[in-house]
Automatic annotation (TrEMBL), chain A:
<feature type="transmembrane region" description="Helical">
    <location>
        <begin position="7"/>
        <end position="32"/>
    </location>
</feature>
<feature type="transmembrane region" description="Helical">
    <location>
        <begin position="198"/>
        <end position="220"/>
    </location>
</feature>
<keyword id="KW-1133">Transmembrane helix</keyword>
<feature type="transmembrane region" description="Helical">
    <location>
        <begin position="52"/>
        <end position="80"/>
    </location>
</feature>
<feature type="transmembrane region" description="Helical">
    <location>
        <begin position="240"/>
        <end position="267"/>
    </location>
</feature>
<comment type="similarity">
    <text>Belongs to the binding-protein-dependent transport system permease family. CysTW subfamily.</text>
</comment>
<dbReference type="InterPro" id="IPR000515">
    <property type="entry name" value="MetI-like"/>
</dbReference>
<keyword id="KW-1003">Cell membrane</keyword>
<keyword id="KW-0812">Transmembrane</keyword>
UniProtKB/TrEMBL annotation, chain B:
<dbReference type="InterPro" id="IPR006059">
    <property type="entry name" value="SBP"/>
</dbReference>
<comment type="similarity">
    <text>Belongs to the bacterial solute-binding protein 1 family.</text>
</comment>
<dbReference type="Pfam" id="PF13416">
    <property type="entry name" value="SBP_bac_8"/>
</dbReference>
<keyword id="KW-0574">Periplasm</keyword>
<protein>
    <submittedName>
        <fullName>ABC transporter substrate-binding protein</fullName>
    </submittedName>
</protein>
<keyword id="KW-0732">Signal</keyword>
<dbReference type="InterPro" id="IPR006311">
    <property type="entry name" value="TAT_signal"/>
</dbReference>
<keyword id="KW-0813">Transport</keyword>
Amino acid sequence: MNEKLRYWMLVLPGLAVMVIFYIWPVLNIWGISVTEPAAGLGNYTRMFDSRAVQVSFVLTFRIAAITTVACLILGYVVAYTIANFAGRVRPLMLGLVLLPFWVSVLIRSFAWIVLLGRSGLVNDTLIGAGLIATPIRFMHNELGVLIAMVHVMLPFAVLPMLTNMRGISDSYMKAARGLGASEWRAFREVYFPQTLPGVFSGGLLVFVLSLGFYVTPALLGGGRVMMISEYITYQIQEFLNWGLGAALSVVLLLATALVLLVAARFVNLRKTFLERSS
Amino acid sequence: MDTTDHAFKSDLAEIAAEKYKAGTLSRRGFLSALGALGLVPFLGDRAVAAPTELVVCNWGGQASDILRDLLGKAYEEETGVPVRVDGAGPSPGKVRAMVESGAVVWDLCDSGAGSAIVMNGAGVIQDIDYSIVDRAKVLPGTDLPFGVGNYVFSYALAYNPTMLPDGVPETWADVWNVKDFPGMRTFRKSVRGQLEGAALAMGVAKDEVYQFLDDEGIKAAIAKFRELRDNIIVWGSGSESQNLFLQGEVAMGNIYSTRGYLLKDQMEPGSFRMTYAGGVLQPGIWVVPKNNPAGPEAAMRFIATAQDPDLQVEWFKAIGNGPINPAAAARVPAELAAWNPTSAENVAKQVIYSDEWYGRNQVSAEELYIDALIG
């Protein structure tokens, strides 16, 4: 047995688990989408005819897009600060970025319910300060979903950008300043273009993860902000509509693949997903 | 199809945890409720119940404890046979599997009319012996040949008067009147007990609700929800509906009467009220599996014992289940009478849940309903 083959043998158990418990069931799901309740593309035509499905897809992409933009803006500032000015408190700031990962998404979403409710902390404070007379509706709508999702997704935006920024030597900026560029111009024309790979990686990561998000929208959306993953759950669990649910998940997967395909033109995918720790 | 509201049944189980937290349920009671909830396999410690006991199966939680401590004790005093309550949830599938495999453990099951029809069709339940069980001691219409009423719950209009300073909703038409009654509303994330309110809001008489809800009527009722949807937060579980009121997220809504019964004690005085006007009243049904271990007579006797009006009142006081025996209403303490879904006065205001209608229309209506709420 040559050496290469021996290493493949080591991978085999993992591969088998993957094929038997993941790839095979997923293929089955695809099968269900064209066989239940009747063979053919009935589920797909039904899906494209359904206004609710369209609304849910548009909503899903809108929320994912807004979340991505918000995470990039907030995350950029954080990453920039940590990379360039944090100094000795850098480990602490990095820790604060990572801290939310130690708490489950479910708990964090419930925490937002405590904060954003009609009689929640935020509304109580605003009313107490005399800024508003009646509570603002921060949740049970799209706004609540967005607030909580930006919070959940922020680390996914910060980390790739931070990795990228820490790899940028400060001699470029120094050179630009030395040649007479203003600080803003040096940032805009020298530093910022170098951070674009990180921005794209972070944005892509957040966008793709947001597309399939379930817990946060389900808890903060008041049941009416139904993103596509919740809609799928509903079709399968409540209506036993395996066919339509499966067809929806195929379309979601294809849509995500399409996003990645388009993104591949701008982003080094290998770097984004495989070498994030580098 | 099975039209029984299993979600409601398991909702009673959740109430146990709340009672425990509030200190009204002992630790032992809570643990046994957890066991009853299925953390202990439903065949439990032995596969076949000894003939010297009677096993009643319901849906777990507080409801199981009350059944055991109240009805079970009364039955034991009367017959000397101890009662064990299994909270595993006697869904038609489980009962059928049990009967067909020949290992019947349950003598009596807390079910619903829709499930009873399904189980009777499958030939896995026995006819009720009306020489032992008294037809006069249940709400008219709940004395089916193969099942008989045990208790009642409703979908009722609940509201928070403190959030409605300019007047409170008395009817479903008021709930749809956003201008005069502002604030968020909550409805169930399912058509069960919900479309009826929309039909009433359109001026349909309460006895004609289900005739009205044909294909066209369903569309019209769902259009009403589409019209109201920006003011709607939906609830999925009973505890969710309770939370929405507790946190002041909604000013009014359509919730289980048993949750309303809890809220009246949990919310600040004057900040919670409930009316049965336009409510939807749904009876639970006892069924007896074929070849039940203790024999048919013992099971029938238990049903008869549970019909006792005083026991029915105690049952209502403990958990908010409406008495099935019309005679019990008069014995409900005056301060609680308004909360009883089966007082003559409240029954007269309500729509009686139609299992037949749900069997025919629920699936298609459900999808239209969700689609209307989201898009």
